[in-house]
Structures are given as C-alpha cells and as structure tokens.
Specification:
By secondary structure, the chain is an all-alpha fold. It is 46% helix and 0% strand. The chain is built from four helices and no strands. The longest helix is centred in the middle third of the chain and has 25 residues.
Length: 114
C-alpha cells in the first residue's frame, strides 16, 4: 500500500479508479487476480485487503510452481525466474516493487531456490 500511495490519492484507492485502471496493463488482470485469491481466501472486502491477498496468493503460487518443478527431477531441474523487479509502480508479477521494496513472494522465492 505504501508504494500505491506514492502515485494514487486516497480517492483513487479502488480497483475501478482511473488511476488504478491506468496502472493495470492486463485487460483480465484484476479479475484474474481476484479469481486466484478466491481459490485460497475469502473475497477481499476492501482495496487494501485485495492488495494484501494478491501478494499472499502470488507467494503461494510461486512456491507451488517452484516446488512442482523441483519435484519433477530429472525431467525438470528447476525454474527460470521472470520479472524480479518493476520498471514503474503498479500491479505486476515482480517480487520487488518499483521502489525496491520486497513483496511477500520475495522471501518465499528465495527460500525455495536455496
């Protein structure tokens, strides 16, 4: 939320605000994120809980994928990592945001790759 507040006013802190829609570059992004959140958690009731649960879900998904790849040895010997950091603040698959803040998935990915 701290990163989002660097580019969005309090009145823009909802998924359908022009500011947030401008930052979401996937036409199915927020809907797909919500779909994945609801697989593991209750539907978020606030924007802040959406942001928190999206990062929890990302961490869970990254952990599951890395473990699946490693458990499929010798056919698969691991994962290539995509999108370490962001080039601008907004929703993405990165695990380090635009300002260098580590997202929830950072520690999970680090631990799984050790």
């Amino acid at each position: 939320m701290a990163t989002i507040k660097t580019f969005a006013s309090d009145s823009s802190l909802h998924l359908e605000s022009p500011t947030m829609l401008n930052r979401q570059k996937s036409y199915i992004g927020n809907g797909l994120i919500l779909e994945h959140i609801k697989q593991y958690y209750d539907e978020p009731k606030t924007f802040e809980s959406f942001v928190t649960l999206s990062q929890e879900t990302q961490a869970k998904g990254m952990q599951m994928a890395i473990q699946a790849h490693l458990n499929n040895q010798p056919h698969c010997m691991g994962s290539l990592f995509w999108q370490l950091n962001d080039c601008w603040p907004g929703p993405s698959w990165s695990i380090i945001d635009y300002h260098g803040n580590k997202k929830k998935a950072y520690d999970v990915v680090k631990e799984e790759f050790e």
